[in-house]
Amino acid sequence: QVQLQQWGAGLLKPSETLSLTCAVYGGSLSGYSWTWIRQPPGKGLEWIGEINHSGETNYNPSVKSRVTILVDTSKNQFSLRLSSVTAADTAVYYCVRGQSSWNHWYFDLWGRGTLVTVSS
Amino acid sequence: DIQMTQSPSSLSASVGDRVTITCRASQDISTYLNWYQQKPGKAPKLLIYAASSLQSGVPSRFSGSGSGTDFTLTISSLQPEDFASYYCQQSYSTPLYTFGQGTKLQIK
């Protein structure tokens, strides 16, 4: 049974860099997209970006200038870095597996989420 | 960006009711539409993908339909564990995925 376990700092000051890591247990990175999605408190879901096992990335234009997603195939992990954070980046961040069926992509496996709060 | 609009934003219903939630896309997205359920403090859970395909392990009382711009999620007979928030998500404009604003289903 594949599981995602995520970790990272939960409290940041404005202008700092958010850093989260997600480990994939019980499965391979190949054949999937590895994604970060966030949810501000009491609000909806926002797709941040994705990476595949080859390191190819795609980012949401809303954060593209500040975001980096990396993959470490030796550790079966992927990570999120978001620079110059502000209070608007306060959210629960989820690591997620994206899967395709006949070119229909969907998010079928989610981490438990990490609440990241940006406050001075 | 493709905008996804759900209605209603909140809904009150009773156990045993048949409930329908609607999602409308700002442009034709064929059947590139997924539905998720989220309970408080938990991660979303995939219910339906490709507009009408039931994810493995999801009860058959959940169903999805629609194509183009208009989609529905139907729960045929509400169970106590179904009270949650529901989100639609388009995967037409990969990789820029967007979600609806959510529908909160509450107990009447």
Overall form of chain B: globular
Q: What's the helical proportion of residues of chain B?
A: under 10%
Proportion of beta-strand residues of chain A: over 45%
Secondary-structure element pattern of chain B, one letter each? EEEEEEEEEEE
Query: Roughly what is the average pLDDT of chain B, rounded to an integer?
Result: 97
Radius of gyration of chain B: 13 Å
Find the count of extended strands of chain A (DSSP E, 2+ residues). 11
What would you call the structural class of chain A?
mainly beta
Biggest sheet architecture of chain A:
7 strands, mixed
The largest chain-to-chain contact, stated as pair and per-chain residue counts, equals: A-B, 21 and 24 residues
Q: Helical stretch count of chain B?
A: 0
Estimate percent helicity of chain A.
under 10%
Radius of gyration of chain A: 14 Å
Report on the biggest sheet of chain B. Answer: 7 strands, mixed
Distance between the termini of chain A: 40 Å
The H-and-E topology of chain A, N to C, reads as: EEEEEEEEEEE
Sequence-ordered SSE layout with sheet pairings:
The complex is a heterodimer of chains A (about 120) and B (about 110).
Chain A: E1 3-8, E2 11-12, E3 18-25, E4 33-39, E5 46-51, E6 57-59, E7 67-72, E8 77-82, E9 91-101, E10 104-110, E11 114-118
Chain B: E1 4-7, E2 10-13, E3 19-25, E4 33-38, E5 45-49, E6 53-54, E7 62-67, E8 70-75, E9 85-90, E10 98-99, E11 103-107
Parallel strand pairs in B: 2-11
Antiparallel strand pairs in B: 1-3, 3-8, 4-5, 4-9, 5-6, 7-8, 9-10, 9-11
Can you describe what's shown?
The complex is a heterodimer of chains A (120) and B (108). With 120 residues, chain A is mostly beta strands. Helices cover 0% and strands 56% of the residues of chain A. Chain A has strands at residues 3-8, 11-12, 18-25, 33-39, 46-51, 57-59, 67-72, 77-82, 91-101, 104-110, 114-118. Chain B is built from no helices and eleven strands. In chain B, the strands form two sheets. In chain B, strands 2, 4, 5, 6, 9, 10 and 11 form a seven-stranded mixed β-sheet that branches. In chain B, strands 1-3-8-7 form a four-stranded antiparallel β-sheet, with no helix packed on it. In chain B, strand 7 (62-67) and strand 8 (70-75) form a beta hairpin. Chain B is mostly beta strands. Chain B has strands at 4-7, 10-13, 19-25, 33-38, 45-49, 53-54, 62-67, 70-75, 85-90, 98-99, 103-107. The chains are: A mainly beta (120), B mainly beta (108). The interface between A and B is medium-sized, with 21 and 24 residues.
